[in-house]
């Protein structure tokens, strides 16, 4: 593609003005624009604000980009704050709005039409991705804390994400005007009814649905997320990234939703925004920042400032360590994670109550890790063995460098109920019994029948975590976690087993 090369920032401070953009259905979107004062054509960036945040969200970053030689337009999507209409949740109306904002930008600013980018954090990130499928003028995207599959985000492994969806609904009611369609989808979601309509609503609002169109347009796409993102889990991004055909880059960091980008919103340099600047400078301004020649997968190790880079997602791990689940011994009420196979056992727990093993609070628990480097912990000896099943490995004689998505294969049998939920947690446990949460996953068996075993094969969310030598791996499985709306029924039981033809195991992808 052609490049608009600007070798130095604009000589004068950029001008700023508040704007109204009226779109095709009469809705007025509120926004602002920074424009370089020096005459000439400039690349443009369209910033779309996050869910429940106003246009001023990107004020500092927009000012800095404009000072470097960009036209920068920020706007609040329909339904939030003073923008008109109802919240469309990155639906067709929102994506049409983005195209009309680009039209306005070309008509009212000195924008070079061949060099337009779209960017945002969270809500804005998802819309920038989807928008690149429907408007070929978007040549570069920076999608920070983004989603690619809204069904997975709300409903991964058929388990409804209670806290994240609840926070979205509450903040929408407080800061905007939810559309009737959004209210109906959320009502059905929380009532656990007509979930097919919720899934249909979400699929329309997922970039993965339009991957072929994105690949046809070939924008340069930078995506970033956190290992512990409690809104938009990272596994959806790794699959999407692998199937992207154009220039691409994937960055994963410790923490939770939008935490990695937070300090940059206030103008404090951080890695996420530095990459965004380098990405746009290369693909919109034609400046060789070196980013295109680097490995496209960048992983920050948890608990460290160190990054590892890889040429592809499939190259992240080079081997697998498989731990088979043993029988749970009566004298310790826990089992072993073995390298050898053991089958023919069964372990039953009382379901419907939480234990010390849990995923914490949305945004807060994993968000603390991004700041302190310390993951959520649980004291493994204190986990109630009547309400959870526990397996532990031998003490490790060498580190286990987990890179990617661990996998769980398990046979689950509801004892006296049908639908049930199980939550599996992987811990790095030290000599004192303190387990640091490596990753966890919830699975709901919606078509389960009491007394009938059902196979569970599921990936944990991807991570980059080093389990030190001298520690051991702990697997805890219970049936309730406050993060999720689904749980095992009260006063029910759940059994875990390893039939001879279907051994239960955990596998770790390793570097």
TrEMBL record:
SUPFAM superfamilies assigned to the protein according to its UniProt record, in alphabetical order: alpha/beta-Hydrolases, Galactose-binding domain-like
Pfam families (UniProt xref): Peptidase_S15 (PF02129), PepX_C (PF08530)
Keyword Zinc: no
GO molecular function: carboxylic ester hydrolase activity; dipeptidyl-peptidase activity
Gene3D superfamilies: alpha/beta hydrolase (3.40.50.1820), Galactose-binding domain-like (2.60.120.260)
Domain Xaa-Pro dipeptidyl-peptidase C-terminal positions: 277-506
Record carries keyword Signal: no
Keywords, sorted A to Z: Hydrolase
Coiled-coil portions: none
Origin superkingdom: Bacteria
Name the UniProt record assigns to this protein: Acyl esterase
Organism encoding this protein: Cystobacter ferrugineus
């Amino acid at each position: 593609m052609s490049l608009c090369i600007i070798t130095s920032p604009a000589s004068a401070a950029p001008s700023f003005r508040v704007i109204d953009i009226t779109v095709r259905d009469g809705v007025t979107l509120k926004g602002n624009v920074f424009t370089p004062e020096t005459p000439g054509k400039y690349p443009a960036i369209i910033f779309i604000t996050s869910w429940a945040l106003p246009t001023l969200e990107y004020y500092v970053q927009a000012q800095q980009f404009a000072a470097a030689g960009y036209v920068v337009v920020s706007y609040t999507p329909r339904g939030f704050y003073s923008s008109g209409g109802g919240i469309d949740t990155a639906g067709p109306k929102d994506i049409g709005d983005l195209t009309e904002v680009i039209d306005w930008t070309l008509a009212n600013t000195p924008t070079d039409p061949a060099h337009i980018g779209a960017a945002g954090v969270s809500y804005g990130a998802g819309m920038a991705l989807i928008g690149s499928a429907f408007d070929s003028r978007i040549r570069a995207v920076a999608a920070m804390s983004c989603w690619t599959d809204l069904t997975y985000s709300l409903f991964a492994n058929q388990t409804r994400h209670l806290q994240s969806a609840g926070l979205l609904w509450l903040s929408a009611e407080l800061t905007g005007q939810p559309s009737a369609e959004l209210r109906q989808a959320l009502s059905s979601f929380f009532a656990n009814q007509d979930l097919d309509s919720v899934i249909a609503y979400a699929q329309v609002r997922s970039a993965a649905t339009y991957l072929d169109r994105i690949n046809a347009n070939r924008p340069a796409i930078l995506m970033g997320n956190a290992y512990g993102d409690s809104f938009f889990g990272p596994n959806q991004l790794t699959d999407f990234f692998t199937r992207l055909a154009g220039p691409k880059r994937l960055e994963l960091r410790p923490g939770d939703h939008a935490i990695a980008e937070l300090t940059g919103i206030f103008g404090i340099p951080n890695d996420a925004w530095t990459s965004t600047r380098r990405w746009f400078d290369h693909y919109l301004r034609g400046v060789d920042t070196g980013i295109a020649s680097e490995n496209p997968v960048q992983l920050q190790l948890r608990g460290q400032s160190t990054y590892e880079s890889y040429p592809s997602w499939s190259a992240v791990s080079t081997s697998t360590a498989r731990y088979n689940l043993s029988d749970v011994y009566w004298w310790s009420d826990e089992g072993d994670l073995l390298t050898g196979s053991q089958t023919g056992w069964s372990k039953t727990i009382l379901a419907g109550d939480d234990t010390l093993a849990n995923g914490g609070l949305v945004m807060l628990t994993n968000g603390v890790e991004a700041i302190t480097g310390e993951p959520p912990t649980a004291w493994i000896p204190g986990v109630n063995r009547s309400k959870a099943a526990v397996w532990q490995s031998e003490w490790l004689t060498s580190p286990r460098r987990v890179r990617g998505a661990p996998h769980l294969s398990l046979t689950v049998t509801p004892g006296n109920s049908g639908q049930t939920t199980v939550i599996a947690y992987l811990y790095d446990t030290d000599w004192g019994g303190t387990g640091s949460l490596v990753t966890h996953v919830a699975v709901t068996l919606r078509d389960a029948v009491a007394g009938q075993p059902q196979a569970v094969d599921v990936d944990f969310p991807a991570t980059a975590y080093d389990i030190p030598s001298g520690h051991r791996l702990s697997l805890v499985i219970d049936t309730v976690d406050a993060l999720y709306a689904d749980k095992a029924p009260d006063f029910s039981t759940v059994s875990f087993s390893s039939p001879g033809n279907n051994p239960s195991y955990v596998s770790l992808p390793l570097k």
